[in-house]
């Protein structure tokens, strides 16, 4: 007797589970067809770094080295030089002659952005950073200054 | 309350923050607080400068005194009760910092002082946290080049006057001043004259903010990125304690390390801004070997074999006259020790010498601060600023403080002459002037008694002040006055050296002067960094390490046992005999002197400019910044310079190169050294005076080696008195 009751109970549970599965079959899919379709990300997502400029074109970075100092994985290398007052690169006496981030070491913690006194380095939205060699993953200042447009949709929150 | 006894002992007890402390009379409240370890913030106060109480950061509360007092200028009094941390004081400190920051540009991200800035640190600890000043800041000159090494940012200056006070009290060269009034006040040079005093670099580390910064270091690194390696400056024989600051294996700056008996905490510009040891463009980068009449790069193995072969063949063909070995007064003790060991213990010859004139067993200064402890200093035949800049700084300080007078004997005017006299004489007549002084002192009847005085009197008979004045051009009245001062001096110090270090007649005349004045003998100031050390190591044809004579068979036997070969007992001919002929083979440590010719010339050096085109083998050596080594300074202090950088190119430490040659030329099992420390351990065993020393004992402060100078005795010194 009790065996029969159990069998019926089990059947009901199975049908209920199938119901859920069938319901999702008719709902809007969660899967994004990346890379054909751009993914949606949050505005404060920490992706690939970008170096900022002022509106007049001068670089914000003055090579103070705080990003390199705070970086927990030692991914940032900064080499400073003195601005030529006639043709300044940045606002102030010093600019970054070299600015490199080793993306193979970066853990995208965002401390560099937090430490920067000039708002020069920010974490962007680009995350597809795969490449064919480690050397290509050491980003130069030129690359960081002109980031590629990320293939993403920023969520409105 | 202070009792009678402590007052008599000139000790005073005061109570600071409820704790009692006893300090010498005339101490300040700040000194007493620091002794207790109580922090009091300061800007203008600097332990080695006279306090002026200008910055108002060190305010404290003293019971029974109205208002707050500056701790740096308030002297302790018996029974004083001081508080350093009350709400009122905290408010005053915060207000003071807020005021200082109203016009401070706060450009810390671009400031070279960032990270080691006293204003930054104190604002974090004592500052108000935010500023109420929203008006536009005062603008002053930025990035203003003051001199060859110093650049100024007048906006950052907090007007503490440390730089000006240093120039007044130590460098005695007041090239900076305050201009304008109130908030417009700024520090600048007078009339745009360059700020080029030979000690200008010290103002960089004195400056509590980033107002005065170094042009050499400018923007090349941030302070927290630098690795600090204790080292020793080799630009002169003072051997100032320095710290090499490096980043990514590059030398970024040279900063002084404090040592009370060497450089105190100062450096001269020559040493502080000399970055040549790290300049690869000047260096020999790989071993060179002569091939078809041309120097060509070779492997170490090949170059060492070639050098060893040349030396071996010369020694086999010509015996003790085969190979000539020239030591260097700039290379380390380790390298010089192994060079003489190579000569005596492998090639079996005493045919070695050093490229500097230094007398054997020189008498040395006990400390570089001796000048400040003397009431009179006589400097003969050299410009101290040129030979040992740090001694010049201490001398100027002593002169400014009014504790020391100076008598200069020589051809060149020195700034020190303003604190005494300058006996200006024609070149080469210094000895005659000294003899004249001895004559005058003997005549005055104020000469101290000494054995042999009658003989000296007879020898000095011709050197009357009138005759000496005629011969040397020094005014007779000045001579007599100087003699009077010398005879009356209580603590006389006599210095000679530089280019005249090897002048035996000058040294003899100064010995006589020291005897008649009752002073210690004349102290040598050699021109090269490790001249004393190389000599101690026995790099001389005339004696064994530690100035031991060849005549002692026991010593020769001991060296035979340690070095593996019999040491010849005949002195070598010395380097004078090398010139004017072509030697069979020569090995030179450092620069090859002009006129030295050899069929096979082996050079161990760091620099491209050091060897002539006809060298046969060039072995690239590391500079002091790239390998461990010890150097003995002009007070006999042995100091350890540590490796701060990786070797440039294929260069190797000089001791390693010499040990490799020893392996090929001597008893191989006696030449196995794996580090400079091991070589120094053998030096401690084999060089009398260096016993008990090791790298561990030397540490960061070094240790004075124990070699007594010859005893003073009257000397017969005669020079021409022809006008």
Any overview of this molecule?
The complex is a heterodimer of chains A (157) and B (723). Chain A has helices at residues 2-25, 66-70, 111-115, 141-145; strands at 40-41, 49-51, 76-82, 94-102, 121-123, 138-139, 153-154. Chain A is an alpha+beta fold. Chain A has a single domain (40-154), classed as Alpha-Beta Plaits (2-Layer Sandwich), CATH 3.30.70.3270. In chain A, strands 3-4-6 form a three-stranded antiparallel sheet. In chain A, strands 1-7 form a two-stranded parallel sheet. By secondary structure, chain B is an alpha/beta fold. Chain B is 29% helix and 18% strand. In chain B, a hairpin with an 8-residue loop joins strand 11 (227-232) and strand 12 (241-247). In chain B, helix 9 packs across helix 21 (676-686) and helix 15 (465-472) crosses helix 16. The chains are: A alpha+beta (157), B alpha/beta (723). Chains A and B meet through helix 2 and strand 3 of A and loops of B.
């Amino acid at each position: 007797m009790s065996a029969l009751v159990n069998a019926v109970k089990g059947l009901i549970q199975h049908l209920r589970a199938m119901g859920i599965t069938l319901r999702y079959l008719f709902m809007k899919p969660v899967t994004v067809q990346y890379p054909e379709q751009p993914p949606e990300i949050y505005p404060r997502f920490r992706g690939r770094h970008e170096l900022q400029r002022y509106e007049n074109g001068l670089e914000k970075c003055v090579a103070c080295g705080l990003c390199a100092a705070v970086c927990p994985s030692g991914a940032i290398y900064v080499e400073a030089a003195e601005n030529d007052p006639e043709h300044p690169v940045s606002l102030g006496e010093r600019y970054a002659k070299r600015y490199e981030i080793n993306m193979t070491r970066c853990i995208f913690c965002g401390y560099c952005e937090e430490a920067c006194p000039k708002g020069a380095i920010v974490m962007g939205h680009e995350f597809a950073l795969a490449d064919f060699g480690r050397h290509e993953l050491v980003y130069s200042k030129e690359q960081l200054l002109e980031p590629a447009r990320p293939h993403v949709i920023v969520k409105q929150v | 309350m202070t009792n009678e006894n402590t007052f008599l002992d000139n000790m005073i007890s005061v109570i600071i923050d409820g704790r009692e402390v006893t300090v010498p009379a005339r101490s300040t409240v700040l000194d007493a607080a620091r002794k207790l370890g109580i922090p009091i913030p300061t800007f203008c106060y600097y332990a080695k400068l006279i306090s002026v109480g200008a910055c108002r950061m060190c305010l404290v509360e003293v019971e029974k005194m109205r208002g707050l007092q500056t701790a740096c200028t308030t002297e302790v009094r018996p029974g004083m009760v001081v508080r350093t941390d009350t709400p009122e004081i905290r408010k005053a400190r915060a207000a003071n910092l807020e005021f200082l920051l109203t016009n401070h540009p706060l450009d810390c991200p671009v400031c070279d002082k960032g990270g080691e800035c006293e204003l930054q640190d104190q604002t974090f600890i004592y500052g108000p946290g935010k500023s109420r000043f929203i008006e536009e800041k005062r603008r002053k000159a930025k990035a203003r080049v003051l001199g060859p090494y110093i650049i100024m940012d007048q906006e950052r200056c907090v007007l503490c006057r440390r730089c000006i006070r240093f120039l007044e009290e130590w460098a005695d060269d007041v090239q900076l001043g305050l201009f304008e009034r109130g908030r417009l006040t700024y520090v600048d040079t007078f009339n745009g004259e360059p700020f080029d005093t030979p000690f200008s670099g010290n103002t960089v580390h004195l400056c509590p903010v980033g107002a005065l910064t170094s042009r050499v270091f400018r923007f090349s690194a941030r302070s927290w990125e630098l690795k600090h390696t204790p080292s020793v400056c080799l630009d002169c024989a003072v051997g100032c304690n320095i710290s090499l600051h490096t980043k990514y294996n590059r030398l970024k700056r040279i900063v002084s390390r404090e040592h009370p008996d060497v450089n105190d905490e100062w450096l001269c510009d020559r040493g502080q801004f000399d970055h040549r040891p790290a300049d690869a463009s000047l260096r020999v980068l790989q071993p060179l070997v002569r091939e078809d009449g041309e120097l060509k790069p070779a492997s170490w193995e090949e170059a060492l074999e070639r050098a060893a072969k040349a030396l071996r063949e010369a020694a086999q063909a010509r015996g003790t006259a085969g190979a000539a070995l020239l030591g260097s007064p700039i290379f380390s003790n380790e390298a010089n020790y192994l060079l003489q060991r190579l000569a005596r213990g492998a090639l079996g010859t005493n045919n070695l010498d050093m490229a500097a004139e230094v007398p054997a067993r020189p008498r040395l200064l006990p400390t570089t601060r001796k000048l400040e402890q003397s009431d009179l200093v006589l400097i003969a035949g050299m410009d101290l600023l040129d030979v040992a800049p740090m001694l010049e700084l201490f001398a100027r300080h002593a002169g400014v403080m009014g504790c020391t007078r100076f008598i200069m004997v020589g051809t060149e005017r020195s700034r020190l002459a303003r604190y005494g006299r300058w006996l200006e004489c024609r070149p080469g007549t210094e000895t005659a002037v000294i003899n004249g002084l001895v004559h005058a002192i003997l005549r005055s009847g104020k000469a101290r008694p000494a054995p042999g005085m009658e003989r000296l009197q007879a020898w000095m008979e011709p050197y009357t002040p009138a005759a000496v004045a005629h011969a040397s051009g020094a005014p007779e009245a000045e001579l007599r006055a100087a003699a009077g001062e010398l005879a009356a001096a209580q603590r006389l110090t006599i210095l000679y050296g530089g280019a005249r270090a090897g002048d035996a007649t000058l040294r003899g005349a100064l010995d006589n002067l020291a005897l008649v004045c009752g002073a210690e003998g004349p102290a040598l100031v050699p021109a090269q960094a490790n001249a004393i050390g190389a000599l101690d190591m026995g790099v001389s044809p005339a004696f064994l390490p530690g100035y031991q004579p060849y005549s002692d068979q026991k010593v020769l036997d001991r060296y035979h046992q340690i070095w593996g070969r019999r040491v010849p007992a005949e002195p070598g001919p010395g380097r004078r005999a090398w010139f004017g002929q072509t030697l069979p083979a020569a090995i030179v440590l450092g620069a090859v002197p002009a006129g030295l010719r050899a069929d096979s010339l082996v050079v161990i050096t760091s620099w491209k400019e050091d060897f002539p085109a006809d060298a046969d083998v060039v072995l690239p050596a590391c500079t002091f910044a790239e390998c461990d080594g010890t150097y003995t300074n002009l007070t006999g202090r042995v100091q350890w310079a540590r490796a701060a950088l990786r070797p440039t190119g294929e260069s190797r430490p000089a001791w390693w190169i010499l040990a490799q040659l020893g392996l090929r030329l001597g008893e191989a099992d006696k030449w196995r050294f794996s580090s400079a420390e091991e070589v120094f351990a053998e030096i401690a065993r084999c060089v009398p005076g260096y016993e008990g020393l090791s790298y561990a004992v030397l540490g960061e402060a070094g240790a004075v080696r124990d070699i007594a100078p010859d005893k003073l005795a009257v000397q017969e010194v005669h020079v021409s008195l022809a006008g």
